[in-house]
Design brief:
By secondary structure, this protein is an alpha+beta fold. Helix content is 24%, strand content 26%. It has 2 domains: 104 residues, no CATH class; 84 residues. The strands form 3 sheets. A 5-stranded antiparallel β-sheet has the order 6-7-8-5-9, covered by helices on one side. It is globular and about 65 Å long.
Length: 252
């Protein structure tokens, strides 16, 4: 398989360009926050600051950025921030010593880090660090500390890019396909593995939107199940991560 040569790493650009290659007619409007969602006849109307869209069916795919657009949906997932840094392109010598086969690596620790070499030869290293989405280098110090402890051969790594974003965690650790009302669906909760899982979910949602019933697709369609004490999630996340880090130290 051609994928085997990538050692399980995802081809993000290829996935992004795939729908365009398919010849489908689709307009994507970025930076268009939806402020309201309302039933109009048998369909749905989504209103934004730049206008509104009415369609027979609607799908919410907001994952770690789910808000109160639909009552209770945000309370089905726990948003957790994930942080990533990318070094400047490494020399051939360093790349061959760190990941000679360009493997993709994910730790077995409870608070894990992951890393790989991208197509430009950069080391991309991710994990849990800052508490808010920012590019402030100081906020990435936990990720940098772990990177330097794992790969001292790099010395003081020269970082070219850094970013952070929310992933959506579910209590059962699997994605959810929700049907909140007739012709209204949501797919979310990829638990930090969204490149693969959201691609799968996109196929399932397209089947539902295309007319397939819940019984005709190969994944359960569920109603909304709110997580108890969701309002205390920030405190819960901090306590859980602290406990898991302690476990990693005591029982690596």
């Amino acid at each position: 398989s051609p994928s085997w040569r990538r050692h399980g790493q995802s081809a993000l650009l290829r996935a992004r360009l795939g729908p365009r290659r398919g010849g489908g007619r689709c307009l994507i409007h970025g930076d268009s926050r939806a402020w309201s969602l309302e039933r109009v006849g048998q369909g749905w109307k989504v209103s934004t600051s730049g206008g509104s869209v009415t369609a027979p069916k609607a799908v919410l795919c907001t994952n770690g950025y789910t808000d109160n657009l639909w009552p209770g949906l945000a309370e089905t997932v726990i948003p957790v921030l994930s942080s990533v840094v990318a070094t400047e392109p490494l020399s051939d010598n360093l790349r061959n010593m760190i990941l000679p086969g360009r493997e993709g690596v994910s730790e077995t620790r409870r608070v894990l880090n992951w890393f790989s070499i991208d197509g430009k030869g950069r080391l991309v290293f991710g994990g849990r660090a800052n508490q808010e989405e920012t590019e402030d280098p100081n906020a990435f110090s936990p990720v940098m500390a772990r990177l330097k402890s794992l790969m001292p051969i790099l010395g003081e790594p020269r970082i070219q890019f850094r970013w952070a974003g929310h992933v959506a965690i579910t209590t059962d650790h699997v994605p959810h396909l929700n049907e909140m009302a007739p012709n209204l669906y949501a797919g979310l909760g990829y638990n930090g593995r969204g490149v693969a899982m959201s691609t799968m979910m996109g196929k399932l949602l397209s089947e539902r939107v295309g007319g397939a019933t819940a019984e005709e697709i190969s994944f359960p369609t569920t109603s909304i199940e709110r997580i108890p004490f969701h309002g205390w999630r920030a405190t819960g996340i901090a306590l859980a991560i602290g406990w898991k880090r302690l476990q990693d130290r005591l029982n690596p």
